[in-house]
Every structure is written in structure tokens, then in C-alpha cells.
Amino acid sequence: xxxxxLTQVLAPLERHGDSRLLVGHETFDDAGVFRVSDDLAxxxxxxxxxxxxxxxxxxxxxxxxxxxxxxxxxGGEPMTALSIVGFPRDRVxxxxxxxxxxxxxxxxxxxxxxxxxGHTVIDDEIxxxxxxxxxxxxxxxxxxAAARPGDxxxxxxxxxxxxxxxxxxxxxxxPEVERPLLDAMRTLNAAASRAAVAVGVxxxxxxxxxxxxxxxxxxxxxxxxxxxxxxxxxxVFAGARELWRMGMGxxxxxxxxxxxxxxxxxxxxxxxxxxxxxxxxxxxxxLLIAVPATMVxxxxxxxxxxxxxxxxxxxxxxxxxxx
Length: 323
What we know:
Blueprint: H1 3-10, E1 21-23, E2 32-37, E3 40-49, H2 56-73, E4 77-87, H3 94-110, E5 114-122, E6 127-136, E7 152-155, H4 161-167, H5 175-185, H6 190-199, E8 203-206, H7 211-223, E9 225-229, H8 240-245, H9 252-261, E10 265-266, H10 272-279, E11 287-291, H11 296-302, E12 307-314, E13 320-322
Parallel strand pairs: 4-5, 9-13, 10-13
Antiparallel strand pairs: 1-2, 2-3, 3-6, 4-6, 7-11, 7-12, 8-11, 9-12
Helix pairs in contact: 2-3, 7-9
């Protein structure tokens, strides 16, 4: 579901007044956070989707990394996960599901967590994901609502995954394009998150279905700031621009993102190609982090592939400025 529809659905719902609920749905954070004690809070999230790659084991890895990412985006550490499965039992061999679950199990173990159960239903299409519970110290969590003017914006993975995975449904990607894409999508955001907490960052989100600008807009609104993003600084997966020019990477998700962002973004002279990348739905994308200016060099030295792409400004009439 697109960000505009989701905003409309959630708007009438009553806000929770319990002081133990540190993060709810109001700020569009990546996970909910519930305080258990002075030094412990639970981080909870859920994510599942249909396959975006053909190999079942790889799909399980990517789906798990994607779900775990929401905990990392809050500065937390995953502890347990529950599998969520929709499976066409009469049309696809059960061995395929075994491989999906094996891929997810291996990735969750890599995170230092455990899959402890789950739920399956018969469905017309394969769907898989995880409900994840993690832990975080309440004083060290990351949220959408903690960006401050003067912070620098850092992105930890390239954009273009949605364009590439959509294009791959029409024509195979070459190994020089596919390998970096798959490696990035199954890479945990653990190192990027731990480095943020270590240097004293307090604001982050992960880039998934709403695209870079959709998730950036949630930081801007929750923190009551404007984000200035330097488009030329943004890393992009090899092959993504070429596929988009060929008309093979257009998605309904990108169209929904663009409609939502129309009143929030000062697009400037951004090309249609760059615009497509900025709204492209990502799967298991990187973290977008608001890093205090004095800590940027330290953070970049700790995280391979991290790139500074902009800055946080005092709020203006537009939530995002592109330059």
C-alpha cells in the first residue's frame, strides 16, 4: 500500500496515551518501540512480500534481511522472529518453501537472532516475511523524529533495486548487474546501525517501499525540518538507469510514491531519470541517517559504501529540496 493511502487509513485512529509506548505509528517510524524497564525497550515490526528473485534460498535471505532492517533502523538488535507464509501448495513443490525458510533461517542466525515459529496459509501466490522482535536501550534508539538542522544526511546502500528487480521479470540481468544487487539486498543493516549508535546518532530510517524521498519525507515531518538532498551524490546500482531508459523498470509503487510526494518536494531541475530513482521502491535498502556534522567523518569511516548526500535545514514550506 502506498504512503498516501496508508496515511489516510491511519489518520482517524486513536493515539495511544501510555508513556511506555515510546514509538507508535504516528511518526511513520520503521518499527514500534515499547519500554519494558528503564534500560530496556522492545522493538517490533513485520514485513512480507511476494518473490522478487527466482532463487528460493536467495528470496528467503532477502525477505529476512528486509524485515530485520526495521529493527536496525531503530538502533535495535533483533532477538526473535516469526515466519509469515502464503504458499500455493497444489502448484509449487514444498521443497521450494523449505529453501525459502532455510535462506531466512541462515540470515536470522547471522543477525544473532532465532526464528521460533510462524504461521502458514494456502495462497494463490508465494508470500514470505517475518515478524521480528528486538531490543534497544530507550536512551539510544534511533527514530524519524530526531533530525536537527545542521545534521548531514548519509545513505548506506545504492538506489535502483525496484527498477532492476522489475526489469529482471522481462529479461535476465547480466551477472555484472545482478551480483551487486543481490549482495546488497541480502546484506544486513547491522553494521550501519551499530555505527550510528556508537557515534551518537539519534535519527535514522531504512529505505524500502516508499523510496528514498518517501522515507525522507517521514523524517522531515516527524522532526519538523526540511531535507536538502544533492541528487548527483546519490549512489545508484549499475544497470538501473539503462533499464529505466528502456522502459523496463516502471512500477505501480513508484507511481503511488510520486503522487504522495507531489506537494512535499521542490523538484528543481531534476531529470525524469533521477526522479524515477528517487521514488523507486526498494527492497532491503540501506539506512538514511541524519548525522551531526562533527560525527560525519567518524561514521563514514566505519561503514563501507556509506555516502553523504545532503543536509538537514530549518523547516520551510517544502519538506524536501533537491539540488
